Amino acid sequence: MKLETGSKLVMIGDSITDCGRKHPYGEGIFEGVGKGYVSLVDALLETAYPELQIRTINMGIGGNTVRDLSNRWKTDVIDLKPDWLSIMIGINDVWRHFDEPKIKESHISLEEYESTLLQLVEQVQPSLKGLVLMTPFLIEANPEDAMRKQMDEYGMAVKRVAEQVGAVFVDIQAEFNKMLDYYYSGTFAGDRVHPNMAGHMVIARAFLNAVGYDWSRNG
Amino acid sequence: MKLETGSKLVMIGDSITDCGRKHPYGEGIFEGVGKGYVSLVDALLETAYPELQIRTINMGIGGNTVRDLSNRWKTDVIDLKPDWLSIMIGINDVWRHFDEPKIKESHISLEEYESTLLQLVEQVQPSLKGLVLMTPFLIEANPEDAMRKQMDEYGMAVKRVAEQVGAVFVDIQAEFNKMLDYYYSGTFAGDRVHPNMAGHMVIARAFLNAVGYDWSRNG
Amino acid sequence: MKLETGSKLVMIGDSITDCGRKHPYGEGIFEGVGKGYVSLVDALLETAYPELQIRTINMGIGGNTVRDLSNRWKTDVIDLKPDWLSIMIGINDVWRHFDEPKIKESHISLEEYESTLLQLVEQVQPSLKGLVLMTPFLIEANPEDAMRKQMDEYGMAVKRVAEQVGAVFVDIQAEFNKMLDYYYSGTFAGDRVHPNMAGHMVIARAFLNAVGYDWSRNG
Amino acid sequence: MKLETGSKLVMIGDSITDCGRKHPYGEGIFEGVGKGYVSLVDALLETAYPELQIRTINMGIGGNTVRDLSNRWKTDVIDLKPDWLSIMIGINDVWRHFDEPKIKESHISLEEYESTLLQLVEQVQPSLKGLVLMTPFLIEANPEDAMRKQMDEYGMAVKRVAEQVGAVFVDIQAEFNKMLDYYYSGTFAGDRVHPNMAGHMVIARAFLNAVGYDWSRNG
Amino acid sequence: MKLETGSKLVMIGDSITDCGRKHPYGEGIFEGVGKGYVSLVDALLETAYPELQIRTINMGIGGNTVRDLSNRWKTDVIDLKPDWLSIMIGINDVWRHFDEPKIKESHISLEEYESTLLQLVEQVQPSLKGLVLMTPFLIEANPEDAMRKQMDEYGMAVKRVAEQVGAVFVDIQAEFNKMLDYYYSGTFAGDRVHPNMAGHMVIARAFLNAVGYDWSRNG
Amino acid sequence: MKLETGSKLVMIGDSITDCGRKHPYGEGIFEGVGKGYVSLVDALLETAYPELQIRTINMGIGGNTVRDLSNRWKTDVIDLKPDWLSIMIGINDVWRHFDEPKIKESHISLEEYESTLLQLVEQVQPSLKGLVLMTPFLIEANPEDAMRKQMDEYGMAVKRVAEQVGAVFVDIQAEFNKMLDYYYSGTFAGDRVHPNMAGHMVIARAFLNAVGYDWSRNG
Amino acid sequence: MKLETGSKLVMIGDSITDCGRKHPYGEGIFEGVGKGYVSLVDALLETAYPELQIRTINMGIGGNTVRDLSNRWKTDVIDLKPDWLSIMIGINDVWRHFDEPKIKESHISLEEYESTLLQLVEQVQPSLKGLVLMTPFLIEANPEDAMRKQMDEYGMAVKRVAEQVGAVFVDIQAEFNKMLDYYYSGTFAGDRVHPNMAGHMVIARAFLNAVGYDWSRNG
Amino acid sequence: MKLETGSKLVMIGDSITDCGRKHPYGEGIFEGVGKGYVSLVDALLETAYPELQIRTINMGIGGNTVRDLSNRWKTDVIDLKPDWLSIMIGINDVWRHFDEPKIKESHISLEEYESTLLQLVEQVQPSLKGLVLMTPFLIEANPEDAMRKQMDEYGMAVKRVAEQVGAVFVDIQAEFNKMLDYYYSGTFAGDRVHPNMAGHMVIARAFLNAVGYDWSRNG
């Protein structure tokens, strides 16, 4: 298990991360961490490793692209002084190409996406104990689907950035792909993007596996 | 893993089970299984054992006692023809002694509790492949606390019934007790009864461990 | 133009047809015909052929399958004595296989779908001046997609029924396929099923072309 | 068809244009173009000319007069750099004379109306590929009706401005007049101003006819 | 002044009468008489003739035609044993011809209107001290307007019935016509049917003048 | 009739005046004048003297005392340039002594009341054609009632100010007193302050009688 | 202190008693006893005499008269088998004479009031350990006020019934009268009927004094 | 009785004090003092000592700690110039250690608590006639419970401060402890913190006893 006692874990992203978290800081009583994968990660850490006292803070905001993360990076990441940081961004960066194809200014190109992500990561990494980069995803089995294809390209950019800086890389798209061998996308998300509890569990399990979580612990 | 391919799992109980499930049957799209431990069990089964295609139905109703279960046993359990059945009842049976002490007709005695539970179980067990009985609980560290003490007695009754009929017994109270070595009750539930996500995860993990769930699977 | 002066046109279906229509009869002031393709058909008939005085009644109900249509066929179709009838059903018949895969009783098999549709059509056709059968659809470009594939099969059943009884056949799936050469599904429907105005216009145009609507009229 | 590939079409006006559009810019997912004639124009362009990729932006605001347009002309028209622009204004300019007759400061005189409209048009026309001026209207058959009469005068002013600058002129009043040969005003609008879907279709058809839309296309 | 001390005055009609009155009987505290002309009549009787102690009951129901009145005549008029009765019905009987022209079953013909009205009046008149028949109206200055014209014909039927049975006849249309010499219809009602306070005052004044109300009294 | 053609009448006061009027200026469509006595005055002027085209503006604000009027006198009275002005203030000035007896700073003394009222009136009178001062009131028959007694004293102050400046004086308390010979206070206002329609009619009639309104006109 | 250990106290009445209590039985968690004097009595009994374990049930219903009590006497009093019963009824019996003076059928005469009350009391008294009759009241200092006067007469009837059957009599009107030596009615109730917390405390104190409550106890 | 005629009593604290009071000052009509113990104190003072005319102001704010009191001490206490002041703070100071154990910055240490409280008291005491310090509490019978234990320590700090400055000290925890001999915590508060009416009465009675309230007065 890579997270040490007393670690502060900040998880940032878009609506998949947000899920009704508290503002301005997504933690504390009354479902401060929201109801998505962040709350599952938090609950699974707390119940299997109660002695570690890991503090999880949800900083997701619905609709965000990497450009939006950039605008709030100082207040929403750096000022929080996280020990561990996870980032899952890119769904909206890609999606806007497909649901608002004519509104070009809402599209984030692969170049802008990758360079911005790298720049953000470089700003914060020196002060981190651990960094986790998760791919954006589309819950779609067909790799030739246009949006899935572009999402895969952005996921490859995440991988490149992770390798470049030595971060933990989590391929969420690959995890959903495994599920799609057994279930159709509609079982996880009506719009192939916003998951139900089972879909959020896919993300939480992938994240925890990547940081060395021992599932059999405290059983 | 005890649950076989294509099993139908019915989970019945009170508000801890209910958690906003769909009526009359707690399953299907739009959070049909609610947002509590049932949805966590469902999500964990689906993601670790996608090939088993286990169908989970939440039949909890807030405020229920074992007397209420008895009134709806035919329509809400037997008619559903479950393969596996889990029961977690008793919190309200005990609680009313403490928050409505003078309203005697709202109290369920230990005798009524145990005999009714046994009778319900005997009605349905012959047609089941598996039966899981979970104790009621109070998230309270002090075993001398009056309500905790009575809850423990009702939990013992659950154990006796489980042994009598050969059911899987899950000691939820014991699981919360382990957590209370590290955290105060308020971290899991403001009123020591209705858990947040971490508290529901305690229940879900205990249930799954009891039915042989392999946590490292599909990792 | 096939619809004669003073015709009564009843359009029945599921949520795609319904779109907030008035109950029990979907017509009249205050958006009685709803806000979907039925209202577009109605508006296009009224503005291009004001002298025909065609009366359009929306009888769609969200979530309906062909089994549901069967249950309300007498009151909702036959008793209305339509001159023309359009039916667009089948999306939910197929969808439940994919978003509630384990709830088998919510699935309508191809056999039940086709035989029920035929039976309904045969009951009402003798008293009609015209019958239009429209295929169900999934706004998805990949014909190998599992749900699209099954939808196509149900669409073929519609075609067979149409040929058998000599009804006007409208291939809505084919119309959306043409659009998908230019746009991704997300431009028409976030969940690939419930269309925005542009998607409803695709349906309305297909229907009107099939009944000989003269677009250049009254221009 | 006059609109070229990739054109940006801005449609500005009052509540007839607005119809619940998104702010500050009326476009994009979640009914950004509203639910009125703008959304019909958008849907008809998209479905008949998918390859043109025309971008439609609704900039209507309920209650606006030409004086209000003047106040927001820079931010809401010029800054958007439209290729094509349509303007339908004047209903409120006239209406206030009739429903608030004593509140003189809410009345826009014919002189102010015409000169302001001309001035706005002259500011923006040099940078446009096409300009469409539509008349305000009252859905009232009687040309001697006091409000209809004044509306006709404002409509004549629109015509004069259109001729002066060489814009496409669309006589919406004339289109409704044709309809009123067959239907009473109440079929289109309870208050003779805010149209239902059929009324909005009258406007959309008139606009599209004026810009050379080929209705039979892609049929 | 024709109404005697202690009279019970029942006023029945459609939405113009109703105006949010209490159900099942439109009287008593908390605006039981609604907020329309009935409440003005009640307030003017109470303040100018406090000693008469006249009891006013509003029995209007929105959307009603004379056919609806017929269905509730026993419970809503006869059982109340009124001393005085006023009826203002017919707007919806006419209006449906114009806003739902194709839904023929919602239209009340002049014949049905007149004969039903006469029949209702004859049933109740023997037990009344006074009967007031008010015409339906359209706040429209042009007597050649199609709906105004038909409304005038229904008004003439009211006059014939009034003469036949010797009832007090009040020509509400004529009263609004006088107002329309000075104001456009929009000053009284956006849809020319549902009046604002000034429009309700026109009705209340006409009613009171017809029953001999002394305006200068108690001044 | 004292109000001349085209007069602008501003009526200012507290919640009795306000009654849900439009902000910032209480006039125009959609019940801009509110639903209280101001709307009755407006409706009675409009229907009896349509040719005068009198413009009524409601500037009441709930809870106001004379001190509050003073704070908004410039923007809410002087800047409007009224021809006629009516003031009805003082109920809250007195009431606070009785429902918040210990909160001394919420009480307006008779001295402050009278001197402030005089000062306000003197500021605006030179530019007026007519000024109407109405007394505050308590709908209570017993002149020895403590609150009624104090209200009478404030009413006397209104009278003194009216005489001093030559304004029209309207004794609303006296009007309600007449009514209380026949009815108990509860018939007009549950709390003896906020009138129902009949109570507002008492005020409206008193105001109109004071300005020479001819009730029999246009009958 | 007259109430014995384990007594069941039922308090019945109108809106003053009701105050948002739980239905069908006004007791138990979540403010089952409402928020008025019943909850104060309950709280004062519980805190001063915790060992007595007195069970209080609120059976008030807003708007009730003695006639309404009669209709629900069996289910709402007798079936509950109270040890002690308190009744406070009559405010609405009197009030309707004053706020709905013309609706005679809503008035309960003194004769009906007294005879019904006596009959109800006689039905239940044999099975009671204690009966408390409280007068209705009007928070009005002037004994010559018409409504106060009539309320006093109904209060005298309560006294006669209490004497006749040997019940504890509590003169709530007299208690409020004492308060009115120091405060105006508005300090306790805007409408002189529905009290604030201080007004409810007046009632609770009077009731408790009448049953021998020792205020200094457990201090 | 220590409070003199005309005293102004300010009661400050957290949500237990607040209970829906009016802002910015918690007094006056419409439940300005809230619905908790402050309103009970106010009602009991008003009804037993009406002649004293004591003015009670509720300045509680939910969630407050002593650090929050410090931030608003000038505007919310000193500027109000109270004669008597009561303070009940500390529950949140302690609670956050237990329900948000990892969010260290939300915890108020015993040292900060005591020194801040002392400092606040010293600022205001010179201008007071009386000061009452009440302990924070947890409605929990077990003195070894971790949160109860810490709450007791903070309560001891209150006692020390009270002794140091000569303030009236009220041990609310001790009062609840007495109640817990007879009832379980759930009878007073589901979460052992936010009391129902009975729990608020415990606080109100303790406060009043401490200031010499004579319960038998005005009986």
UniProtKB/TrEMBL annotation, chains A, B, C, D, E, F, G, H:
Q: Which residues form a coiled coil?
A: none
Q: Spell out the InterPro entries in the cross-references.
A: Ester_Hydrolysis_Enzymes (IPR051532), SGNH_hydro (IPR013830), SGNH_hydro_sf (IPR036514)
Q: What is its EC number?
A: 3.1.-.-
What superkingdom heads the lineage? Bacteria
Q: Which residues form the SGNH hydrolase-type esterase domain?
A: 12-200
Q: Which keywords describe this protein according to UniProt?
A: Hydrolase
Report what the protein is called: SGNH/GDSL hydrolase family protein
- Does the record bear Hydrolase in its keywords? yes
State the Gene Ontology terms under molecular function: hydrolase activity
